[in-house]
Predict the 3D structure of the following.
Amino acid sequence: MKAVRIGIIGIGNIGSAHASAINGGDIPGLVLGALCDNDPKRAAELKELYPHVPVYENAEEMMDSGLVEAVVISTPHYDHPPLAILAFRKGLHVLTEKPAGVYCAKVREMIDAAKESGKVFAIMFNQRTNKLFRKAKELVDSGALGELKRSVWVITNWYRKQAYYDSGSWRATWAGEGGGVLMNQAPHNLDLWQWICGMPVEIRAQCDLGKYHDIEVEDDATLFARYANGATGVFMTTTGEYPGTNRLEIAGTKGKIVLEEKRLVWTRLEMDEREFCQTPEERKISCTVEEFTDERYNGHHRILENFGRAILYGDELVACGEEGLRELTLCNAAYLSSWQNRPVALPMDDEEFYAELQKKIDGSRGVKNIRTAHTEEGSYHSRWNTNW
Ligand SMILES: NC(=O)c1ccc[n+]([C@@H]2O[C@H](COP(=O)([O-])OP(=O)(O)OC[C@H]3O[C@@H](n4cnc5c(N)ncnc54)[C@H](O)[C@@H]3O)[C@@H](O)[C@H]2O)c1
């Protein structure tokens, strides 16, 4: 069987899980070509852990080694676009971790470099492989739900303790990470929200900084979205609520779907409500209820395998890298709205956002002097998959 030689850049929490999965033969079509981490102590540890795999401290040297055809980028977010651009210019395929970057202007440069290279560009939106989100998308895209009226996502089970924020130098500062829960945990849900319901035309948001933790970025956010057809959406997320909720409800003119507790419940109206509204006699619309259940799966493995198959056989990507821009647009618009206390029309002004972000970076506590602790070397935390 043909296999793509992968180089992984950034072997921390998630990078070490990807390395272990590929090295262990869990991903058909991928083999480990090389590893790279710019922390010399980490690189030394990796040489012990993977004695048969070349280890680099410099990403460019790994890219130039001829040992890899594609890279997986699992460094902190600010580095995703510059590393991807470098890889594309060297003719390598790229799978980047989420988020695509921290600000849209840089992500646009990454997308241009991908287009110029003609290489495969994917992003690790692993929750897109979840059966229930796929079903929700199918019901919306096929028109089975009618015209969208409203969506509400309460995604408050991204709980994190203070120790999590204190576990890495780059975490939870404007200079090191560029954001909080919307930038780190909720990108999966922001992406799914736009993937299923489409992009809104306006975002209004309240992002509370350090509400539950000693951090300078937001750990609680509420977004209010307006869509071109007049539909509305609300998205609430936090890392400070326990046990928290994961509940997505989407209402259309032909019914509604509710995803919660590993189930999707579809209530289908037998007549479109807009039509029913004008009928003189009937008092109720008859409806049928159908239920779908979730399955155990490893979304990260599926995205890695899909990346390999896209390179080898031209398979369609589950999440192409370009789509990371839409998710990041929602995040950036929410920040700008909250900072300036006003609604932000989409598409937004990327330059204005960057200027405001720069002010936050200038006033930032900066990058902390802590070495990342690798507590669960090589395994995927259950919290990274869909957590109902
Ligand atoms: N898809 C998911 O479910 C998921 C889960 C966790 C993390 N992530 C994403 O993965 C990225 C990394 O997160 P993490 O928790 O693994 O971070 P981490 O701090 O545990 O690991 C990052 C590693 O990258 C290395 N590094 C930093 N800059 C580098 C560079 N320029 N070149 C080479 N190595 C470099 C660091 O030394 C560190 O070992 C983040 O963008 C995060 O959002 C995604």
Remarks:
- The CA atoms of residues 277 and 283 lie 10 Å apart.
- The radius of gyration is 22 Å.
- The domain at 132-295+327-362 is CATH 3.30.360.10 (Dihydrodipicolinate Reductase; domain 2).
